[in-house]
Amino acid sequence: MIAGVEIENFTAFGRLQLSLSPRVNVVIGSNGTGKTHLLKAIYGLALAGLPASADRSAKEVAADISGKLLRLFSPEESKIGALRASGANALTRLSLVSSDETRVAISFGSRSQAVQINVDAGGTGHELQPVFIPTKEVLSLVRGMRHPDHDRATVEMIFDDGYIDLAELLVRPGFEDEAASLDEDPRLSSVVRELVDLVGGRYRWTREGAFRFEPGRYEEKADPARSKSKAAQAYQDSTVTRFVPRGEQSLSSGMTAEGYRKIGVLHRLLSNGSISPGATGVLLWDEPEANLNPKLMKKLVQVLLELSRNGQQIVLATHDYVLLKWLDLLIDKGKDDHVRFHALYRDPDSQKLAVESADSYSLISKSAISDTFAELFDEDVARALGGAKP
């Protein structure tokens, strides 16, 4: 688990320190306050902490991480110094500290050719693959991003590495084998079923190199091989959970609602093991509510809380009041739920970015979201009263 993040002189940040919950973290703030940059910085640092291949030199690893950061943030100049905060004089430093006090640190200057990486391997806290889900859905883009006839350099100019990395995770094998994993892991079964029920089907990777939406649902079906076994002593011992198509024509992913595709991304990552609570790294999701019907948000929040209860650390960035309130209302203290809110804001005097963190949304004072909804409520009441301000 990631316990803390420290950033100094990086992109929009002068100096920022963040203490993360091992469960759910929600980053809020106005446009331009660095929410996406924060998530990408955590993602890049977590990647830097992954074990390097034995045949890779320290110089090669540093070059790889430098390139990764450049492809994540896409500055105009393709040099690592372009990611420094404007006007910074001191070195740029970023670090992650895990719950077992393992530390991964990156530093570089304005003229650096590559970053310097320092991993204090006191534990194994950063040896888990992180997952970053960007704002726009990716299912309908995978075919174009991975098409053999498309120039890789052009693809990388259009999509930053947040999208490209996610596309590679989505096409990992194992999706058609999910019945076995569902039966072996009840935690996964309940979450995957809920996601499929939300959209009425699943997205399958086809031989044509694209995702198609297949209507249907998961059902418990008798397994002849298991039901004949002498070891089958109960109903659940002779059944397996399988996806049952509804018989309707499948659709290309681009012909389905974008909000459904975002749910499909989470389902796919869980089904092929790219997200496995307790076995994979932090899940970073930028604006999960984008293009999502508000009616689906309650269920999505319930799914995210269930994942966190089973050991999945989550960091979300959002602008949405509905998502925030469901997170606030659906917390179950009896299940050890914990949500920490981090409000990024620009200091009115120094104009530098700062953060305010609290374990209750009601304790956050620097929230543009709540201020805007309060203003909206006041205007609505004023109109109802014939123009008089409440």
From TrEMBL:
<protein>
    <submittedName>
        <fullName>AAA family ATPase</fullName>
    </submittedName>
</protein>
<dbReference type="Pfam" id="PF13304">
    <property type="entry name" value="AAA_21"/>
</dbReference>
<feature type="domain" description="AAA+ ATPase">
    <location>
        <begin position="21"/>
        <end position="349"/>
    </location>
</feature>
<dbReference type="InterPro" id="IPR003959">
    <property type="entry name" value="ATPase_AAA_core"/>
</dbReference>
<dbReference type="InterPro" id="IPR027417">
    <property type="entry name" value="P-loop_NTPase"/>
</dbReference>
<dbReference type="InterPro" id="IPR003593">
    <property type="entry name" value="AAA+_ATPase"/>
</dbReference>
<dbReference type="InterPro" id="IPR051396">
    <property type="entry name" value="Bact_Antivir_Def_Nuclease"/>
</dbReference>
